[in-house]
Amino acid sequence: MTSPRFLPALIVVDVQRAFDEWEAAGKRRNNPDAVARIADLLTAFRQNGAPIFHIRHEGTKPTSSFRPGGSGYAVKDEAREAPGEPVVVKHVNSAFIGTDLESRLRAAGIATIVICGATTNHCVETTTRMAGNLGFDTRLVRDATWTFDRVGPDGEKYSAEEIHAMTLSNLNGEFARIVTTDDVIAAFAAR
């Protein structure tokens, strides 16, 4: 994961309070320890002096849970950026569309990125697919992302666990390598 010259960058996608509000309203999610694992990743990257990019979703629809100034737009405390860590604001699912994320990564000589955040099958998946297509060596941290139960177009209910697992299966090998938080931390220790 690391080389003597370059460190991987951590991309933290949409760890915002809107998701807490969704849960409080009755939406069920998987992976309840995901935010704690994100905090572990942030600690490891900071301790190793590796770059971190925080992604925020800024909703544009009046009913969006992610509208600027709304309670859901704020970042969760566990994932708050430290001084000097850039925050990239996006308006669509991918952190690469309409932002300067790719140019920042390329300018810094970053070839490997590690992605975590929410939700697995929306912004995390879209960002991961684009990262792979753009040629980045992409790692998606399975225990540091989560999603919610959904109902399909045929009315069938799918659990967050099923959606999470299928999304990881779809991405694995073609767009990213699926890893755990422990895998990422162990790679730092092995440097």
Automatic annotation (TrEMBL):
Transmembrane regions listed in the UniProt entry: none
Keywords in UniProt for this one? Hydrolase
> A GO molecular function for this record?
hydrolase activity
Put simply, this protein is called Cysteine hydrolase
Q: Which SUPFAM superfamilies match?
A: Isochorismatase-like hydrolases
Gene3D superfamilies the record matches: Isochorismatase-like (3.40.50.850)
**Where on the tree of life does the source sit, at the highest rank?**
Bacteria
The keyword Transit peptide appears for this protein: no
Q: Give one Pfam hit by family name.
A: Isochorismatase
User: Lineage of this protein's species?
Assistant: Bacteria, Pseudomonadati, Pseudomonadota, Alphaproteobacteria, Hyphomicrobiales
Q: Where is the Isochorismatase-like domain?
A: 9-183
